[in-house]
Structures are given as structure tokens and as C-alpha cells.
Amino acid sequence: MEKPWSGRFSEETDEFVEEFTESVSFDKELALEDIKQDIAHVRTLQRAGVLSKEESRKIIEGLESIRKDIEEGRFKWRRELEDVHMNIEAELINRIGDLGGKLHTGRSRNDQVTTDERLYLKKEIESIVQLLKELRRSLVKAAGNSVDVVLPAYTHLQRAQPIRLAHYFLSFREAFLKDTERFLDCYRRADELTLGSGAVAGVDFPLDRHYTAELLGFNRVVRNSIYATADRDFIAEFLFACALTGMHLSRLSEDLIIWASEEFGYLDLPDKLCTGSSIMPQKKNPDVLELIRGKTGRLYGNLVSLLTTLKGLPTAYNRDLQEDKEPLFDSVRTLKGSLIGMRKVIEGLKVREHRMYSNAGNFVLITDVANYLVQKGVPFRKAHHIAGSIVAYLIEKGKRLEEISLEELKNFSELFEEDVFELFKPEVVADRRRTYGGTSKESVLGMVEVAKREEGLV
Q1: What's the topology of domain 6-105?
Q2: 277 is an active site residue
Q3: Residue 19 in contact with residue 79, Cβ under 8 Å?
């Protein structure tokens, strides 16, 4: 098969080179974006007087027939034609004759591919933003159902202070809300037309790039042709947003995996989202959560892969940039699957309230014992030391905080009175955190209502 660029060469392309350099095996993912761009380019060429109305009509009809075959899975992709662009162009020429060869007028694959990628990225960001919204809504619903569930919060993986489970769910809702904002920012920077920049220097035909941008739904036009063909920042930014979202998903997965273990026993995962062991009949493995945690490494790797490719490139386009697509496509698939999986897990969780509550007592309450003394005028550092001494005493005696008597407490400070025993209830201690953003029931209920309004649940 003769290459579109074969006029310069005296030898046929080595078969190894064809196999090593082809990208159609993966960039055919951009096929529908490529045809959408082709049609807009044809209309721009017609507007510029490069194509007649009849020529434009015939080319667009040919492209529409190719699009239909691609959508229905009938299109035959050919490796020897290198990429998605040349496959479509060659098939267009095959269907409508030499007229199809006019399609590439005033265009290079350099500006063509970045336009495809930007169209693709805008579409996928919209999809990811919707999946993030669905996950956030699931977390808000879970929060609304767990306002009265009290458990220990953890720092350093040690029991810290009592919180309401709803407060925990809302914390991740906040993280995913920030992730959504990052993707929307990324969308804004991807929303620029590069077509019309040519290979590197612009185009010597009177193409109205703003008209093309309008046809393709871009808000802005990239102002510099060198930047347009060399830039992959918009993909790197997207991969970073994917990696950061993956990190949040991974941390949530880690918590839920630990909480579902027999050692914690805080919750049950839905059977339909777990698997068993091939040898141990008792096992119920949290595979979905483990894979979400594991796939985050892929999201990190894809970001580092692209940044490494970009860091030493001379201006402007280099074939190295072909390596931007596989990390992009992989991160899209990986993140979307992880978001769907996490939403299903959250929706199917069953909470063991009594187990959580029992672990929210004892020494988890001791900070408020110290604060009790502070409210009686004791400097915090001294109160902290007294409370720590109480912990050491109870450990030595093998007793829980709830089992200590007033007489024993008075051995540490005469300021202790009967009212201190109110602080031995986890829900009371949680409700003392009344500051904005705290874990008191009043605060959490208010935040649940705010979240419901923001997510359109009321």
C-alpha cells in the first residue's frame, strides 16, 4: 500500500517500522472525534472557497457513511496506514475517489490529533464529572442514614476521638467535590481549538478558525501555532486530576477494607461485590476495593509516563507525542471503572452500629476529661498530664474509663465532680464539637442538608 507521504522515499517502509510505529490499534478510539473534526474542516474549507458546495456535500456524505460503519463495527482498520486519521482518509478516497484527497488541505496530522484529543477529553471529562456526582450523592445518602451512628475517628491508625459516621462520609464527599472542580478546570483549558495551526507555522489558506471552533463547540482558539502542536499540558493536567481522584478512592478503599475485617467488624460489604477463595471456604474478599486501591498505581504511572515523555522534547511536534494516547485512554477507563465500583460499594454497605459504638468509648473519651479540667481553670498542659496519668492508671488496673469511680478520679484532681461521668458517653463527647465543620449532631445534620441541596437531592 502506497503511503500518503511516499513521494519523498525511494524504499518501501520496513515491516518492522510499520509494526513499531503504528498507532491505529489504540488511536482508533478517536475515530468519531476525527470524523466530527473532518466534517467541520470541510465546512471551513468551503467557507474559505477551497471547496465548492457540491464537493463539500460529497465529502461529508462519504464521511457520514464511514462514521456509520465505525459505529456499527464494520469498519476495517489497516495497520499499514499507521493511524486513525490516515485510515479514515484512505477509506474516504476509496469511496468517493480523488475528491477525498482534498480533505487534508490546510491541515496537518499535528494539529489534527490535538483537536481530536481535546474533543475526546471534553467528552470524557463530562462523563467523569457525572460519575463523581453519582458517587457524591451516594455518600450524602449514606451520611443521611448514619447521623446517629458514633464511632472512633483514627489518627496514626489509633483510636482518637468520637465522631458521627455521617461526618466521615461527608469528608470524602468534600474530597470528591474538589476533584470535580479540578476536572472542570481541566475542561476549561482543554476547550481550545488547535485545528488551523498546521504542522507548526500556521496555514496558508484563508481558514476561519473561529468558525471552525464554533462548529466543534470550542470556546476559544489557541493563539500560537507552535504551542498548539507541541502542547500536551491539557492531557498531563487531566492525568494529574485522575491520579488525585484515584488517591482519594484508594484511601476510602483502604478504610473500608480495614473496617470490613473481622478485627474491626465495623461493616459488611455486599456479597455481590466480593469474591471467595479457591482454597479457604470461609473467605469473603473485598476484591473491588482492593482493585480500586491497586489501580491507583496505574493512574500514577500514566501521569509519570507522560511527564517523562514531555520533559526533554525539542519544540514543537515530535513522534514521541504518540505516546500520550495510551496513558490517556487507560486512565479514562481505569478511573471510570473505579468510580462506578466505589459507588456500588457505598450503596451496598451494611453498618455494624454497636461494634462502632463500643469502640468509641474508653480512652477515646479522655481528651474531653482533660478539657473538663480546663473548663475548671486548669492549664491545658497540666490537664493533659492528669488525663494521661488516668489512662496509665486504668491500663495498670485493667479497667476501662467508664469503670473508674469518682473517688479514684479525685486522687488525680479534687476538681472532678459527678458531672464528669456525662463525658463517658461517646455521643455526648461527639456533640461537644459544635464548631462549624465539627462532628456534633447539630452540625452534621446541617451539613447533610447543605450537601443534599448542593447535590440536588431535595
Answers
A1: Fumarase C; Chain B, domain 1 (1.10.275)
A2: yes
A3: yes
